[in-house]
Design goal:
Number of domains: 2
Number of strands: 12
Number of helices: 8
CATH architecture of the largest domain: 2-Layer Sandwich
Shape: globular
Order of helices and strands: EEEHEHEHEEEEHEHHEEHH
CATH superfamily of the largest domain: ATPase, nucleotide binding domain
CATH class of the largest domain: Alpha Beta
Radius of gyration: 19 Å
Helix content: 25-40%
Strand content: 25-35%
Largest sheet: 7 strands, mixed
């Protein structure tokens, strides 16, 4: 298939604070843009999409399908990203592909036999999942996504002698990961370039650099699923928060303790 025959995809990732968007034709990235971590996605997402479409010289109507990170991650950010993609998909009568935020993190960290992707979940906790990333970029989950305390995270993965850590959550807890590795006699290496990390590690932990263009991985993983016939309609697209929202947690606690609702 020639490049001109490849599908055009607009990919959006709003699970992280900065977020990013990308336009690709097949596996070729036409352009990417990272957001501002200090601003709400609601204030600049549409402007960034318009800017990127102009830079890539692509009209929104030319997009063949949309790929979007569905979580876990920022609850508000995910809702904004999903609402935007759903609106585009309904207006243009296009299909969507749902991509795990954690899978995108693992994919962005490069080829690896065992990568644990981590995103911050607040209160010192993380969203975590382990993947195998093939040289082709196909990303296979090795366990289920979980919402974990740092101690539970280390209990889950701390006995593995060969491991790649990736994502904002890994960098947030770099000191604790390094300390655990040292106490277990495991080498810990921080890389400034994910491409320099070996796919096959005999031993040791490596920390991949943060990928500021996760939407490129969302586009790549979305293409795999699109070609596999796993695209969805806008109505079938839903967030995967992994854990309840703080409001839901508070409401459950209130009911268990028979307290009146706050106003």
């Amino acid at each position: 298939m020639s490049l001109v025959d490849e599908p055009l995809v607009l990919a959006i990732e709003t699970a992280t604070r900065a977020g990013s968007i990308s336009i690709a034709r097949g596996s070729a990235i036409l352009g990417s843009l990272s957001g501002d971590p200090t601003a709400s996605h609601s204030t600049d997402l549409l402007d960034h999409i318009r800017q990127l479409l102009n830079e890539a010289r692509v009209a929104l109507s030319e997009i063949n399908f949309f790929a979007v990170a569905i979580g876990p991650g920022s609850f508000t950010g995910l809702r904004i990203g999903l609402a935007t993609i759903k609106a585009f998909a309904v207006y243009l009568d296009r299909q969507c592909v749902a991509v795990s935020s954690l899978a995108a993190v693992a994919h962005g960290a490069g080829c690896s036999k065992q990568t644990v992707a981590l995103l911050p979940a607040g209160r010192g906790e993380v969203y975590a999942q382990m993947f195998r990333v093939a040289q082709t970029g196909e990303t296979e989950p090795l366990d289920d996504a979980a919402h974990l305390s740092l101690q539970a995270l280390l209990e889950r993965y701390g006995s593995l002698r060969s491991l790649r850590w990736a994502g904002d959550g890994a960098h947030l807890h770099e000191d604790q990961l390094r300390s655990w590795a040292t106490n277990q006699g495991i080498d810990f290496v921080k890389s400034s370039n994910s491409d320099a990390l070996p796919a096959k590690l005999e031993s040791g932990w490596t920390l991949a650099q943060i990928d500021r263009h996760l939407a490129e991985s969302v586009a790549a993983l979305g293409l795999f699923d699109y070609r596999a016939g796993k695209a969805l309609s806008a109505s079938e697209l839903h967030a995967d928060y992994v854990r309840p929202s703080d409001a839901e947690i508070n409401e459950k606690w209130r009911k268990q303790n028979l307290l009146p609702a706050s106003h």
